[in-house]
Design goal:
With about 280 residues, the protein is of the alpha+beta class. The protein has ten helices and eleven strands. The strands form three sheets. A five-stranded antiparallel β-sheet has the order 7-6-5-4-8, covered by helices on one side. It has a three-stranded antiparallel β-sheet with strand order 1-3-2.
Length: about 280
């Protein structure tokens, strides 16, 4: 195994251990399609580099975080973990010195929150959490049943059944507070029952009608439109987020068509999925 492969495995060990509270050889076997012997060797190698980070718990058969844990390979930015959770791949590192990417300020998300939510999702259990919002900045206890993480472009959300609202709702990950408490019983409100999540909705977009034919052609080429229209399919509960990212207003036209660029032509069909 070359040095880069070892570093990648150490990165993965630390990523899972930090955000989930612990890891074992099975994680490595599944991620890298390798033997248990090789996976155990990788964990031992990691421990020679970060000797105070992990300790083996024989009762749970996992290597758990110690109180002396310190980051050696990962940044501690939750995007690293959530990107892996969502895609199975690590965030790519930019090797091109002649390009640049926008760095969006990361939102503070507690590892304790992520560990609790991931446990609830994988075990399909209810979990008690504290949550704040701009409408209610004081902590409010809620019992939810989470099923998915969602990246809306600028921030990460959690999709979950909310017992207070008696509906599936979106929660901003950075607005959870404290330490969540995992309930013992499984939830009946699983991902299969989330109608807005499981319904596919097609949004039909076209260039702003106030633009000249020449400007229309620019946008049609940008988005590879067919017959002057762009059809985008997404989950019902994500319609509003997608329109927001594309800067498509569902209320009023922007005063400048060059700023508006795209308009939705099947607004009546998607109206039920809008929350603004």
């Amino acid at each position: 195994m070359d040095k880069s492969s070892k570093q990648q495995r150490c990165y993965f060990i630390e990523l899972i251990a930090y955000w989930e509270g612990g890891m074992n050889a099975t994680h490595l076997e599944q991620q890298f399609s390798q033997s248990r012997q090789q996976s155990s060797s990788d964990i031992n190698y990691y421990k020679t580099i970060a000797s105070d980070n992990l300790e083996y718990d024989p009762s749970q058969k996992i290597h758990k975080l110690t109180h002396h844990f310190s980051l050696q390979f990962i940044s501690g930015n939750v995007d690293e973990y959530l990107h892996w959770f969502h895609t199975g791949h690590f965030l790519p590192k930019n090797q091109n010195l002649h390009s640049e990417s926008l760095i969006i300020p990361p939102r503070k998300i507690s590892p304790d929150i992520i560990r609790g939510l991931v446990a609830a999702m994988r075990q399909q259990k209810r979990i008690e959490v504290d949550y704040v919002s701009l409408n209610n900045p004081n902590r409010e206890g809620r019992v939810i049943a989470p099923h998915s993480f969602v990246n809306t472009g600028l921030r990460w959300h959690l999709r979950a059944w909310c017992e207070k609202s008696q509906d599936y709702r979106d929660f901003v990950l950075s607005r959870f507070r404290g330490t969540p408490v995992l309930e013992n019983d499984k939830t009946e409100h699983t991902i299969e029952k989330d109608n807005a999540w499981n319904t596919q909705v097609t949004i039909m977009l076209k260039p702003d009608l106030r633009l000249s034919p020449e400007k229309n052609a620019v946008l049609e080429n940008d988005y590879q439109m067919q017959n002057g229209e762009l059809h985008v399919t997404t989950r019902g509960c994500l319609v509003q987020y997608l329109l927001r990212e594309l800067q498509v207003s569902t209320k009023v036209l922007d005063g400048t068509p060059e700023a508006q660029q795209l308009i939705c032509v099947n607004l009546s069909d998607i109206k039920k999925w809008l929350f603004e």
